[in-house]
Task: structure prediction
Amino acid sequence: MTKSAKMTSLQDVEDFAVENGSYYAEQFGKIQGKTGFTWSWNTMAAVFGPLWGAARGVWGFFWIFLVLELFALVQVGRGLWGELGAEQLVRYERLMANIARREEQAAELIAAGDPEGAQSKLNIADNLRSVADNTLIEAEAASGKALSILILGLALVVMIKVAEGVYANYAYEAQYLRYRSGKKAQAGIRRSGIVFGAIGIVAIWPLTLIRFTVTKPDEMVAGLTGGLLGERITISKFPVGKEYFAQLSKQGDAGFDWLAINFGGVFDGVSAGIRQVLDWLELLLIQTPWPVVMFVTVVMALRLAGPRVAIFTAASLAYLAFMGLWELAMITVALIGAGAFLCVLMGIPLGIWFGKSRRAYTFAEPVLDFMQTMPAFVYLIPIIAFFGTGKPPGVLATVIFAMPPVIRLTALGMRGVPESTKEAAVAFGCTPRQLLFNVELPLALPSIMTGINQTILMALSMVVIASLIGAEGLGALILEALQYAAKGQGLLGGLAILFCAMVIDRIAQGVYRKKVGGR
Amino acid sequence: MTDEVIALEGVWKIFGENADTAMAAVLDRGLSKPEVLEEFGCVVGIVDVTFKVNRGEIFCVMGLSGSGKSTMVRHLNRLIEPTAGSISILGRDMLALSSTELREMRAKKIGMVFQHMALLPHRTVRDNVAFPLQVRGEPKSRRWEVSMTCLERVNLTGYEDRFPHELSGGMQQRVGLARALASDPDVLLMDEPFSALDPLIRRQLQDQFMALSAELKKTTVFITHDLDEAIRIGNRIAIMNDGRFVQIGTPEEIVTNPANEYVRDFVEGISKLKLVFAHSIMVPIDEYTNTRPSVSYDESPRIHHGTDLDNLIDIATTTDNVIVITDDEGMDVGVIDRATLLKGVQGGKA
Result:
């Protein structure tokens, strides 16, 4: 094999390692010449540990061994000066004080002429004394362990040093390969690396060592730093409590109150609008005689989604009816129906906008994330402040939670329309409006339908939470079951919600399949 | 009405945010493409393109991918705005049109066929063909009538109620062609219409298109990356390279007289048999007689100077004598012997 054909040419490694280049060239040759493990010892790495990694820019090595060495050093520290058994001694002293107090009380009781009371105090004192004795024994045993902990710590130090020496060249060879592929890996020794590594060690090691080896770390640190750290700034606990939090949350309250007072009209308007939709739906679902609603639902399932879904729908409706949950179920469906309707009404135009404007989408994305991931309780609180309790705020909470999917999937669908198809339509003289209604929306429809479906299902999952702020329906039934631990009621109510969801989902999917299957 | 249907004059396209400054700099200092990219971060798409297409003519633009031919054709209906230059179609300055007028032009005067068909998947073939008419607001009965006629033209009668995905690639492209014809435009833009099809179907569609275009006489700008296709279809061909028109000419001019190395490389692999004619390879009769005084033309066949190589070979195999070429009046003007003919087959020009 010619020299140039070798995987690692000597000169190349020397350019990389700079200091001790020939040593690394030899070691890398050894490592690359074998599959599996080869013994390759790096004394510098073993001696300087993490600092070696910092100097050479092997930062993975630096952090791993920074932590491991620290762990070993803590053991050594505990063995050398750690006040082992100190905790037990503290406890012993506390117990002794307690005993002294009981005896005092007993003496007082005797003086007051109550020997029985005094006797019971003395009994307690005796019991405590035996506990205290045990604690003292434990303390002695613990301090006796110091030697074994010291030995363990020293053994750990040796092991870690060996690991450093062996692992160093492997880590460095990996970095060399990165360097070769031009990923800007550090070559040679860099002074800034050493400085940063040293700062890292100074920042991490001493305080940690003190914290884990000394019983009263704050006092110790205070002694070492002249009272700056430890006394004024405690190291065992963050020196600031809830001052800022309290301040800010108070201001938040004020802000919401201000909004509620000054924009009451707006909120009432929104509330009235939602109630309008809700009333309309409830009229349709509840005031209409139940046989009509059932008949229409089953026929709809049959026409849109086929006989199997129709049978399932009939069975689900029968379940609701025979369990006496018909009215509650209709209230629930009206509730989520109103929510889903509002979601679609607002979500599709928003989705179209976000699909067309990348900038708008960039701004909207975090808001959508917020709506979807923020726990519902967080926005239930201001909703109650603005809209009070009852159904409209329940619908509003549902809208907030359930709207993102339809927005996202509409935008996705809009962006998925092939440029070439749009271009063709424009080439035939389409106006933007014709383009939207004849090309973009029809092509985005599968995605939009999926979004609507998701929105409906997410709205259903909100019914229990909506019932927390006074929206009636199946959600309230389940909430009640939760309050009284009524397991059976909870299960039956849950099944009712499940059936509602599945019927709506299957019918919606049927519509969707019909649309798409048509082509 | 003028006979020039399409006229482009010094059209440039520079892509990027500083296109206008870059344009000015290019005109001022004559920067090259890489320099423009370096200095302004702009990509030069089209460089100073000028050409005219006459009524009923098929004008082929041939270039490899990235040569800017698809970008160029999109300037004609302003799917892409030029950075500089003027574009006129049917005597109207395209760049001066308002957006309503432009839509009007697109809907009525300019039809376009795309490489990837770009049919609407949710519409039947009939509704796809009728789409340009729907955009124009024609009533349904008229739309259906026209789309039936157009589908008949491309031999797709009986498929009008199918959806595009039920059709093969070749059939889809015929739908695309029918759609472009539906608005009975004066100008047809064809952006690599047959490139995505397999060779056999491509040839069939080329034949069909040529028959159709002989009948309808639409002024056509036909984009292709295939020189054979350009030669088969085009009345004139423009060779495009790096956004520039390298050469414009009839197929014969291109083949026999390539303007530079680039065109020559292309032309090399092309069969010249039907593109090279007797007059371009013959040796003038006086010159021939001077070099070979003993030669006699008494037994020689007399052939018209417009005969192509293919026919010349047929004739040469039936005689041992040299072939004498006559002009339009029947006068002897040139001679082709075996050596000249073989050279002609090989190189196009002796």
Observations:
- The first helix of chain B runs from residue 19 to 29.
- The mean pLDDT of chain B is 88.
- Chain B touches chain A through 28 residues (CB under 8 Å).
